[in-house]
């Protein structure tokens, strides 16, 4: 909640500094729907951790570019060449292979349970968020307007959620008992606002699919960087995943561009 407040405030400040005063033509309904799917994906992903472990969540969310691409084709009129599909599939598979944690499953662990269902819901909502963002791009929506609109919409949804579930009182009680966490929350939220600044610039300039590829490969490059800097060893499987990711990125860079993808009105 605090994160969305600071994100929205940051976006408003950037609009005051950079905007020429021209009002946005983006329909309010479209902005609200995009905000709802955005926060819904986040809530479903976080809730899934009650039933699945973190590596499973990371693996599931690494499939985000696929849902963004597929739903973008069906609902936003996006068109990609066959190489683009292959490149995205290679990147996702490579990241999944790299991030996969070896380990035996417990006897009572199900193949598809509540946690996996919530991850599927989160991925679907991620894809729908990409659809709405593509439609907002059709109105030449500026990055900081998109950032502010989505976070304000998310605030509305989360306010209702916190009041209905009573979590708002738990959060206030926790912060009252542990006031030292408040500066940490503020610092985290400021870092989030700065990160979202670049995320929405990427979305408005290059599209949600490119942004989802960047955010998916971010964890991969973070771990790969630690390997290079600190000399941590990689498994054979991880080296194979690394090669697949770089091959997919190179393929996309060289042959995955389309001249002008169309967007339905």
Helices and strands in order:
Layout: H1 2-18, H2 28-48, H3 54-61, H4 64-75, H5 82-99, H6 114-137, H7 143-165, H8 167-177, H9 181-206, H10 208-230, H11 236-255
Helix pairs in contact: 1-7, 1-9, 2-6, 2-7, 4-5, 4-6, 4-10, 5-10, 5-11, 7-9, 9-10
Task: Considering the chains and any ligands shown, give keywords for the structure.
single chain, mainly alpha, 11 helices, about 0% strand, disordered C terminus
What does this structure look like?
With 265 residues, this protein is mostly helical. It has 11 helices and no strands. Helix 5 (82-99) packs parallel to helix 10.
Short description:
The protein is mostly helical and 265 residues long. It has helices at 2-18, 28-48, 54-61, 64-75, 82-99, 114-137, 143-165, 167-177, 181-206, 208-230, 236-255.
């Amino acid at each position: 909640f605090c994160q969305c407040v600071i994100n929205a405030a940051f976006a408003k400040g950037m609009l005051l500094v950079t905007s020429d005063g021209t009002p946005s033509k983006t329909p309010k309904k479209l902005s609200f729907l995009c905000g709802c799917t955005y926060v819904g994906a986040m809530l479903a992903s976080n809730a899934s951790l009650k039933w699945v472990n973190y590596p499973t969540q990371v693996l599931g969310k690494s499939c985000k570019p696929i849902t963004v691409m597929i739903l973008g084709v069906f609902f936003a009129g996006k068109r990609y060449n066959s190489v683009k599909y292959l490149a995205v599939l290679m990147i996702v598979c490579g990241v999944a292979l790299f991030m996969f944690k070896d380990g035996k499953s417990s006897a009572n662990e199900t193949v598809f349970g509540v946690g996996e269902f919530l991850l599927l819901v989160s991925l679907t909502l991620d894809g729908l968020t990409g659809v709405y963002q593509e439609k907002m791009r059709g109105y030449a929506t500026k990055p900081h307007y998109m950032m502010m609109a989505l976070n304000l919409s998310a605030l509305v949804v989360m306010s209702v959620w916190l009041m209905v579930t009573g979590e708002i009182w738990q959060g206030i009680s926790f912060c009252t008992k542990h006031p030292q966490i408040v500066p940490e929350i503020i610092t985290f939220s400021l870092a989030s606002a700065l990160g979202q600044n670049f995320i929405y610039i990427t979305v408005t300039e290059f599209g949600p699919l490119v942004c989802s590829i960047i955010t998916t490969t971010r964890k991969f490059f973070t771990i790969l960087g630690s390997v290079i800097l600190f000399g941590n060893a990689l498994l054979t499987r991880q080296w194979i995943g690394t090669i697949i990711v770089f091959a997919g990125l190179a393929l996309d860079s060289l042959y995955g561009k389309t001249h002008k993808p169309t967007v339905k009105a």
